Amino acid sequence: MRFDENADLDTSSVDDLRGSGGRGGGGVGGRVAVGGGGLGIIGLILYFVISALGGGGTGGGGGFALPSSGLTGLQSGQQADGSAIAQSCQTGADANTRLDCEVVAVVNSLNGYWSDVFARSGQTYSVPRINFFSGSVNTGGCGSATSDVGPFYCPADQEVYIDLSFFEELETRFGAQGGPYARAYVIAHEYGHHVQNLLGTSRRVQAGDSGPTSGSVRLELQADCYAGAWGNHATQVPTSTGRPLITDVTQADVAAALDTASRIGDDYIQSNLGGGRVNESQFTHGSSAQREKWYSTGYQSGNPAQCDTFARGVSLG
Questions:
Q1: Which partner for 178 in 125, 132, 171, 301 could form a disulfide, CB atoms 3.0-4.6 Å apart?
Q2: Is Nuclease set as a keyword in this record (predicted)?
Q3: For residue 256, is it left (φ>0), alpha (ψ between -120 and 50) or beta?
Q4: Which one, of 64, 94, 86, lies nearest residue 132 by Cα?
């Protein structure tokens, strides 16, 4: 996947918290929303480990209590600094050479795509903020989290949070192929949760819901499908200049995204990273095969309307 080197990037929806230690009052522990897409990929490992030890559990907001780890936030009155990233990430050329700028470019494309989809259906899309953090973060509405939780969306404040080192973890620990388009899939999945929040779909899932046909699994598979729908149109979404920001998506790119989907299925994580035994009653994100299926459904159709994993009688795969 490549970006138009002459395209302008918009960093107005990006907050860079790296080096700041987080945000807010600096509380420790806290909860990360699960039903809203919150529990990240590596967070699943923690979930299974905690469950196996008889701890954790779910509670308000559908999360599990994260272990206290000395998280610190910004001091009172301090603000996230967006000036550095605004200076560094100005064009598509920057996106082709810098990881943070690459994510900015993907975010620009996602916001352009979903704004158009919502407008075509007579609705208004609200642009979410995305926060880059390092090590730990204190969110506005979902408590505190460490990088172990992976990328997550907080529906309470309509913001996405990501430690960019997660992408290296995905390749080294999970064995994923990686690459720009595979990374874009991860971001697009979180933006899928934002779409679900705007449409009210997230409210259909109860806290602590799990199992192979649970509302939590349906929510995650739909977010995968939404990511695929964007991917279908990625090379067509224009920037303010009217030219597409993403210029090239190859079959190898799509294969890399499917490879990533296969390595973040509940069964793969349980069997390879969570103790070796698959327990479907603990599924919250769907199996590897399901995740591949629903990403492919979105990608092949290019139509978010084909992503209704909550429809009566629908086969989740």
A1: 171
A2: no
A3: alpha
A4: 86
Amino acid at 296: S
Instruction: Provide mean pLDDT across the span 225-231.
Output: 98
In angstroms, the Cα distances linking 178 to 36, 140, 283, 298 are 25, 30, 24, 20
Count of beta carbons in the 10 Å neighbourhood of residue 136: 24
Classify the C-alpha dihedral 109-8-129-16 as positive or negative.
positive
Greatest Cα pair distance in the chain: 55
In a domain? residue 32: no
Rounded to whole angstroms, the Cα distance separating 42 from 173 reads: 10
Domain for residue 139, yes or no? yes
Residue 206 — pLDDT band, cuts 50, 70, 90?
Answer: confident
Task: Kindly give the interhelix angle for 180-199 and 99-120, rounded to the nearest 10 degrees.
Answer: 40
Q: Give the residue among 291, 288, 290, 294 at the shortest CA–CA distance from 271.
A: 288
- Asked whether 175 and 169 are in contact (CB, 8 A), the reply is no
* Percent residues over pLDDT 90 in the chain: 68
In a domain, 263, yes or no: yes
When computed from its CA atoms, the radius of gyration of the chain, rounded to whole angstroms, is: 18
Rounded Cα gap, residues 185 and 223, in angstroms: 10
Q: Residue 14, SS3?
A: strand
Handedness of CA 186, 39, 218, 264 (dihedral sign): positive
Query: Which amino acid type is present at position 196?
Result: Q
Residue 48 belongs to some domain of the structure = no
Please tell me what DSSP assigns to residue 19.
T
Domain count, the chain: 1
* Range(s) of the domain holding residue 244: 2-19+81-306
DSSP β-ladder status, 2-3 and 152-154: unpaired
